[in-house]
Design the sequence.
């Protein structure tokens, strides 16, 4: 793991916890001092965070935390729900066995890292891949990238990670047993629950940050 990897991980955690107000400019020199490193790994970390949607550049080239837009996220979740429904209804049950084994292993390992969101995305995209519809898989991947910055807030507590793993396994059990309608219903509830948690936690974060900025 490089120094840029370390800075990326620590800075992302700080952004997700609300350490930096959304209007605050992230200055390379100050961040280098904060993380006891040079500007080069900070610059690389900021570039990666920008690619993930955690930060944005303003017109002057300055970097600032990217404020979640709840309305836009709701719209993307609505599209995601349609794509996921299509994926589960057309997925080949035989192609889901490796995915089930992977998530049974994850359940035993109790993965609680901040990178769990990537494992979650991989799960949903694997089901889309099993459907054989490349367009569904491609569009779902695109939406996942666009909402990742806000979906990470769904996995800030251990209980949500544990619940997500169990829900994934329930969906796979239904699909591999040929219970397509049941699997689709479980998937719909799974996504709705995630959206509710994300919206609530982001709302709490924005409220807290607004109150802290008030004189």
Sequence:
């Amino acid at each position: 793991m490089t120094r840029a990897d370390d800075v990326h991980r620590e800075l992302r955690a700080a952004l997700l916890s609300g350490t930096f107000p959304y209007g605050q400019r992230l200055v390379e020199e100050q961040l280098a001092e904060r993380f006891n490193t040079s500007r080069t790994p900070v610059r690389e970390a900021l570039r990666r965070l920008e690619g993930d949607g955690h930060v944005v550049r303003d017109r002057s080239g300055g970097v600032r935390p990217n404020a979640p837009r709840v309305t836009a996220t709701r719209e993307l979740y609505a599209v995601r729900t349609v794509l996921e429904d299509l994926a589960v209804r057309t997925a080949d049950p035989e192609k889901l066995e490796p995915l089930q084994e992977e998530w049974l292993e994850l359940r035993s390992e109790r993965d609680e890292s901040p990178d769990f969101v990537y494992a979650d995305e991989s799960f949903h995209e694997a089901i889309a891949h099993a459907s054989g519809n490349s367009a569904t898989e491609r569009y779902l991947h695109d939406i996942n990238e666009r909402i990742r910055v806000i979906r990470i807030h769904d996995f800030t507590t251990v209980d949500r990670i544990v619940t997500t793993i169990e829900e994934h396994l329930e969906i796979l059990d239904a699909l591999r047993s040929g219970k397509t309608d049941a699997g689709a219903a479980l998937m719909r509830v799974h996504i709705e629950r995630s959206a509710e948690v994300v919206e609530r936690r982001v709302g709490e974060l924005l409220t807290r940050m607004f109150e802290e900025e008030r004189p």
